[in-house]
Amino acid sequence: MRVKDYHHTIDIWLQSLEPYDIARLLAQPGPAAWSLGQVYMHILDETEFYFSQIKVCLASNDHAMEECSSEAKAMLRNNAFPDAILEGPPSNAFVRQPGSKQFLIDRLVRLKTLVAETDLLIARSLFHGKARHPGLHYLCAEEWFQFSEMHFRHHLRQKARIESFLERTFGKYEPQN
């Protein structure tokens, strides 16, 4: 079920790319605000990090007795980030722009395969280690997996705000015949 849900979330992001050319993907609502393309790059780059942490967890029983923070427990229990604009680390100021729309599509499609493969690895793993999250303490492989899908959904609200800006700036998308 969780692979189906994750694929559904990825499909939302894939379908959302349809109306945008590269100019719209790179347009920033303000000087310090991310473009839609940067949001895509952020979620994809962060997901690569989360999945690398899953591999760490599946490679040993290190830190198996460590706990995640109470904030992480609440998020995982609710299967969602808090409904708030969260301030990320200073490194978020350096999120790169995508080179092309196709680059984003290709990464999202590859991620769907990785999600299915990783779910199988988690199910078959003999190890139950945990890896340290920068703000939430220790997460196991299943928690990293859940967290990564939650992160995609969390940014849907940001995506909607940027899409509203794009519609005001560029007008409603009209498909080319």
Word description of this protein:
By secondary structure, the chain is mainly α. The chain has one domain (2-85, 95-170): Up-down Bundle (Four Helix Bundle (Hemerythrin (Met), subunit A)). The protein is built from 6 helices and 2 strands. It has a two-stranded antiparallel sheet. α1 runs antiparallel to α5 (101-124), α3 (36-57) runs parallel beside α5 (101-124) and α3 (36-57) packs antiparallel against α6. It is elongated, with a radius of gyration of 17 Å. The mean pLDDT is 91.
Give the secondary structure arrangement, pairings included.
Layout: H1 2-17, H2 22-26, H3 36-57, H4 70-78, H5 101-124, E1 130-133, E2 137-140, H6 141-170
Antiparallel strand pairs: 1-2
Helix pairs in contact: 1-5, 1-6, 3-5, 3-6
Strand content range: under 5%
Strand order of the largest sheet: 1-2
Q: What shape does the CA trace take?
A: elongated
Series of secondary-structure elements, N-terminal to C-terminal: HHHHHEEH
Structural domain count: 1
CATH class: Mainly Alpha
How helical, in percent, are the residues?
Answer: 55-70%
Number of helices: 6
The structural class is: mainly alpha
The parts where pLDDT drops under 50 for at least 5 residues are none
Number of strands: 2
CATH superfamily: dinb family like domain
Distance between the termini: 38 Å
Rounded Rg: 17 Å
- Major pleated sheet: 2 strands, antiparallel
User: Which fold name fills CATH's third level, the topology?
Assistant: Four Helix Bundle (Hemerythrin (Met), subunit A)
| Residue-averaged pLDDT | 91
Task: State the CATH architecture.
Answer: Up-down Bundle
